[in-house]
Design brief:
Layout (H helix, E strand, L loop, with lengths): L4 E11 L5 H11 L3 E6 L5 E7 L1 H13 L6 E13 L7 E3 L5
Parallel strand pairs: 2-5
Antiparallel strand pairs: 1-3, 1-4, 2-3
Enzyme class: hydrolase
GO molecular function: acylphosphatase activity
Catalytic activity: an acyl phosphate + H2O = a carboxylate + phosphate + H(+)
Length: about 100
């Protein structure tokens, strides 16, 4: 399959824990047909990876930067390791609950 896909790692800063941010991120990612994961960090941020068609990934990163969950306050979005991929690494969009 030669469909062009994109992957990008993200970290969202602000009031993004205990405000259903991960749940909303998972739901929005699935609505857009994206795959990946997200989880809380001990530093109070939410990190993750999103994968999918470039236009949908762009839509998701805009959502992470500007909208988020209703009770959240987003101060900053950092994107890293953005690149094209030939196939998905993830089969779904999951919330990872363990801390590292």
């Amino acid at each position: 399959m030669s469909t062009s896909l994109k992957t990008v790692d993200f970290e969202v800063f602000g009031r993004v824990q205990k405000v259903f941010f991960r749940k909303c991120t998972q739901e929005h990612g699935k609505q857009l047909g994206l795959r990946g994961w997200c989880r809380n960090t001990p530093e109070g941020t939410v990190i993750g990876t999103i994968q999918g068609p470039p236009d949908k990934v762009a839509e998701m990163t805009a959502w992470l930067r500007d909208i988020g969950s209703p009770a959240s306050r987003i101060d900053k979005l950092e994107l890293k390791n953005e690149k094209s991929i030939s196939d998905y690494t993830y089969s779904d969009f999951d919330i990872v609950r363990k801390k590292i």
